[in-house]
Design goal:
By secondary structure, the protein is an alpha+beta fold. It folds into 2 domains: 7-171, Immunoglobulin-like (Sandwich), CATH 2.60.40; 178-286, 2-Layer Sandwich (60s Ribosomal Protein L30, Chain: A). The chain is 27% helix and 29% strand. The chain has 7 helices and 14 strands. The strands form 3 sheets. A 5-stranded mixed sheet has the order 1-10-9-6-7. β2 and β3 form a beta hairpin.
C-alpha cells in the first residue's frame, strides 16, 4: 500500500501512463508537451526561418519558411510510430477549455520516412492561426505496431511570442532561395541581345542571393543561339548575349572574378523550337559542388567550354 492505494491499483495506473507514450501496448499512443515542458525555438537567417517544437516521446514539429516560398509545416520522428497512409488533422481545444468543439482541418498523408507528415502553405497557415487562438493541432493515424490510434499534439503554450519573432524574420528573408535561382535561364528574341524588365528582375534576385551567400564561389554565364543563320554569326551573338548578362551582374556589384563567361553558339540545342535555344543560362556553383563535365543545357547545366 502506497498513498492509500493498493499495489494492484498503482501497477494499473503505471501501465496506463506508460501506454500514453509507448505504442504497441494495446492503448492509444498520445504524444504532446504539457504546461511545464512546452517550448518553441526560432532559428533565423535571411535564407530560412524555422519555428521548432519538441514533442516529448515523438520527435519535433516544425514550421519552416524558406526564402522565396510560403510557410510549411512538418512532423518528424526517428521512430516510425505511425503506419503510412491517410491520417486526420484536427484542431482541438486544450483540456482547460472544455466545451470548445474540435475543428477538422482535413486528411493528411503519413509517409514511411523520417518526416512523417508534411503540409503545404494553406494547412500550415491554418495550424499557425489555431495555435495563436490557443488551440492544439492534432494528427491521428494508426500505429505501426498494433493498429491502435497514435495522436500527436502540437502545443500552443509559449507559441505566441516566438511567432512574433518569426514574423520579423520572415519579413527579412531574401526574395529567392538557391533552388529557385541556382540554375536560371534568360530567353531572347530572334537576333536580340537585349534584356527585358523581367530579365533584370531575375538578375536582381540573383544578385541579392549572391550578396548573402558567401559559399557561392563561381557564377557561370553561358550564351546560346538557335541554328538560323551561319555558325560564326551565331557564336558571336551567343557571346554578346552572355556578356550583356555578365555586365549587368557586375554593374549590380557582383565580383567580376567570380563570373565565367562562355559562348556556345548553336552547339547545344535543347529543343527543336528555335525560340527555346536562344538563351543565356546562369549557374551558381557553391563550395564543395563538383563542377564535372556537363553539357550546357536549357537551365544552366554548364558545358565543357
Amino acid at each position: 500500500m502506497v498513498s492509500g492505494l493498493p499495489d494492484k491499483t498503482l501497477n494499473m495506473l503505471a501501465v496506463i501512463a506508460l501506454g500514453l507514450f509507448l505504442p504497441g501496448t494495446g492503448l492509444a499512443g498520445s504524444y504532446g508537451a504539457g504546461i511545464s515542458n512546452s517550448q518553441w525555438y526560432l532559428a533565423e537567417s535571411v535564407f530560412e526561418c524555422s519555428l521548432v517544437h519538441e514533442v516529448p516521446g515523438y520527435g519535433r514539429a516544425v514550421f519552416r519558411h524558406r526564402a522565396g516560398e510560403g510557410l510549411s509545416f512538418f512532423l518528424e520522428s526517428e521512430s516510425r510510430l505511425m503506419r503510412p497512409g491517410r491520417g486526420s488533422l484536427v484542431v482541438e481545444a486544450p483540456a482547460w477549455r472544455p466545451g470548445v468543439a474540435p475543428r477538422p482541418v482535413g486528411a493528411v498523408q503519413v509517409s514511411d520516412g523520417r518526416r512523417a507528415v508534411s503540409l503545404e502553405t494553406r494547412q500550415a497557415v491554418i495550424l499557425a492561426q489555431s495555435l495563436l487562438e490557443g488551440m492544439r493541432p492534432t494528427v491521428t493515424r494508426e500505429s505501426s505496431y498494433d493498429g491502435s490510434p497514435v495522436r500527436v499534439q502540437v502545443s500552443n503554450i509559449n507559441f505566441n511570442s516566438q511567432y512574433q519573432r518569426y514574423r520579423s524574420c520572415a519579413a527579412n528573408l531574401l526574395p529567392v532561395n538557391i533552388d529557385q535561382i541556382g540554375r536560371s535561364r534568360i530567353a531572347f528574341a530572334s537576333g536580340s541581345k537585349t534584356l527585358s524588365q523581367a530579365d533584370m528582375d531575375l538578375l536582381d534576385n540573383i544578385v541579392a542571393y549572391l550578396m548573402a551567400d558567401t559559399t557561392v564561389e563561381r557564377v557561370f554565364v553561358d550564351g546560346h543561339s538557335d541554328r538560323i543563320g551561319n555558325r560564326i554569326d551565331n557564336r558571336a551573338l551567343s557571346e554578346e548575349r552572355a556578356n550583356v548578362v555578365a555586365e549587368y551582374l557586375k554593374s549590380r556589384g557582383v565580383d567580376p572574378d567570380m563570373i565565367t563567361v562562355r559562348a556556345h553558339g548553336d552547339q547545344f540545342p535543347v529543343s527543336r523550337r528555335a525560340a527555346d535555344n536562344r538563351r543565356t543560362t546562369i549557374r551558381l556553383q557553391r563550395e564543395g559542388d563538383r563542377p564535372g563535365f556537363q553539357q550546357a543545357n536549357g537551365y544552366g547545366g554548364t558545358s565543357a567550354g
